[in-house]
């Protein structure tokens, strides 16, 4: 499994970026919070990686902060939430805002995220409430 990549960002086209590590280019999907925190220019960056292997694809998801990767992995355990939706959640609000909305049971705030309907928001609140303390 790939857990961390250190290299230079060659291309930024949200939600994807191309990270060059020792001559190999890795296509990595990342939330907007990671894009905002990427260094300018030709500086080296370290990304915490979640590698998802499916029958039809191998996908890499990258995060500047390990806590964002932990939240992403927790979101994947929620029924009906996949990689794209978890990225949309992390792109649409900070992890602190997400935690606040989950703890307060704010369905309306979660429904403003792209792809999150009322049932998914309710499921997120129920399933994530206990997990957030561990993250």
Give structural attributes.
2 domains, OB fold (Dihydrolipoamide Acetyltransferase, E2P), alpha+beta, 7 helices, single chain, 5-stranded antiparallel beta sheet, DNA polymerase, domain 1, 135 residues, elongated
Commentary on this structure:
The protein is α+β, with helices and mostly antiparallel strands and 135 residues long. A hairpin with a 2-residue loop joins β2 and β3 (24-29). The protein has helices at residues 32-37, 66-76, 83-92, 95-104, 107-111, 118-128, 131-134; strands at 4-13, 16-21, 24-29, 44-53, 58-63. α2 packs across α3. Strands 3-2-1-4-5 form a five-stranded antiparallel β-sheet. The chain folds into two domains: 4-63, Beta Barrel (OB fold (Dihydrolipoamide Acetyltransferase, E2P)), CATH 2.40.50; 67-134, 5' to 3' exonuclease, C-terminal subdomain (DNA polymerase, domain 1).
Short description:
With 135 residues, the chain is α+β, with helices and mostly antiparallel strands.
Radius of gyration: 15 Å
Beta strand %: 25-35%
* Alpha-beta classification: alpha+beta
Q: The biggest beta sheet, please?
A: 5 strands, antiparallel
Helix content: 40-55%
CATH A-level architecture of the largest domain: Orthogonal Bundle
Text of the CATH class of the largest domain: Mainly Alpha
- In total, how many beta strands? 5
- The largest sheet has its strands arranged as 3-2-1-4-5
- How confident is the prediction overall: mean pLDDT? 92
Question: How would you summarize the topology of this molecule?
Answer:
Elements (H helix, E strand, L loop, with lengths): L3 E10 L2 E6 L2 E6 L2 H6 L6 E10 L4 E6 L2 H11 L6 H10 L2 H10 L2 H5 L6 H11 L2 H4 L1
Antiparallel strand pairs: 1-2, 1-4, 2-3, 4-5
Helix pairs in contact: 2-3
């Amino acid at each position: 499994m790939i857990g961390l990549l250190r290299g230079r960002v060659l291309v930024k086209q949200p939600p994807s970026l191309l990270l060059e590590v020792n001559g190999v280019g890795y296509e990595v999907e990342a939330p907007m919070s990671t894009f905002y925190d990427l260094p300018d220019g030709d500086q080296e960056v370290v990304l915490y990686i979640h590698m998802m292997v499916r029958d039809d694809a191998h996908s890499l998801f990258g995060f500047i902060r390990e806590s964002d990767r932990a939240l992403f992995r927790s979101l994947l355990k929620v029924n009906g939430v996949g990689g794209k939706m978890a990225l949309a959640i992390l792109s649409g609000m900070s992890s602190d805002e997400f935690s606040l909305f989950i703890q307060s049971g704010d369905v309306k705030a979660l429904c403003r995220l792209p792809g999150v309907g009322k049932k998914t928001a309710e499921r997120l609140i129920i399933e994530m409430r206990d997990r957030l303390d561990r993250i």
